[in-house]
Amino acid sequence: MPTSAPTVEETYKLAQQLLTQQKSKKVVNLAAMLLKHDGWNMTYQALYMDALIQLAQRDGTSLNRRLELLEGALRFGVHLDKVETLYFDTLDKLLARKNRLPAPGKLVIGLGPGRNGSTSLATLLSTIDGSFITHESYPMIFADPTPAQLAFHIKKFHRLLPYCTWVGDVSHWWIYATDKLRREFPGVKFITLNRKPGQIIDSFQRVKGLGKGSNNHWTPSSEDYWSKSFWDFSYPDYPLPNFVGTKEQKRANQIASYVAEYYYRAHNIRGDNLMLHLDTLDSKGRLSLQVYLGILIKEQEVWKNKGGIQDSFA
């Protein structure tokens, strides 16, 4: 007689037991399953974090691997105090292996609503000699950022700048922190990557899935048709349209509102902000980027996620 699959409650209890037995890798996998069921559940998030922290603290774990695991534990943008001390202790030990620059490097932040070529932009910027450029580096920043989220990133940037020519990150969530970054780093360079709104909408629609249980990061929490993803908190909510149509058609309308508002915000950023179009990133846009940053950027293929549907587990 076939056995039934374990319930969510049974899976959580098993994961707790395995955590006490130091079976961290199994706990990570179980916690990921639980978060697919409910990405908003902070208990499941804490379980996932605790398992990664446990892995990071194992004897024999290299500093680079430890930092990678701890960054994974930061992904949700909450419980940052559980990770912060160990994370920065590890980062400092890695930086101690590098020589400090005669003068601190510069900060560059890539912007765009998502599905707009952000991976390609990060890849291009990372070719700058001596740079440290990331794509969607955790902790996540909410659409209504918490002080702890911003403070963590600012602390990290300050740690890195004495050792790297350029430090930066490319992510949609920085649009909600531009004023804070400009006050903390007056010379920060923003780069907004444009793509045709229709193409962005189509790409989001494809990535976020169809039918009940798919994702809609832009809808109010009362909408139970959609799954609960921790990514929801990094996007603003928009009212559900009242026209007659499918849920997915209405989601497209919400995404359109988001993209329009995002680029409006980007056009009104105070300070240096270079507007580039995705279609020019390997030609005219690359030249504009070099002039804007005052550096030479290496020639290489930049289309790193073209046509991709990669997304996080939750």
Brief descriptors of the model:
5 strands, globular, 314 residues, alpha/beta, five-stranded parallel beta sheet, 11 helices, disordered C terminus
What do you see in this structure?
With 314 residues, this protein is an alpha/beta fold. Helices cover 44% and strands 8% of the residues. The chain is built from eleven helices and five strands. It has helices spanning 8-20, 24-37, 42-56, 63-73, 84-95, 118-125, 147-160, 178-184, 197-208, 247-267, 284-293, and strands at 106-111, 132-135, 166-170, 189-194, 273-277. It has a five-stranded parallel beta sheet, with helices on both faces. Helix 1 (8-20) packs parallel to helix 3 and helix 2 runs antiparallel to helix 3 (42-56). The longest helix has 21 residues, at 247-267. The two termini are 33 Å apart. 38% of the residues are buried. Residues 307-314 have low confidence and may be disordered.
- Taking Cα atoms only, what radius of gyration do you get, to the nearest Å? 21 Å
Given the C-alpha coordinates, what overall shape results?
globular
Order of helices and strands, N to C?
HHHHHEHEHEHEHHEH
Report the structural category: alpha/beta
Order of neighbouring strands in the sheet with most strands? 2-3-1-4-5
Mean of all residue-level pLDDT scores: 93
Distance between the termini: 33 Å
Low confidence ranges = 307-314
Query: How many strand units?
Result: 5
- Largest sheet geometry: 5 strands, parallel
% residues in beta strands: 5-15%
- Tally of separate helices: 11
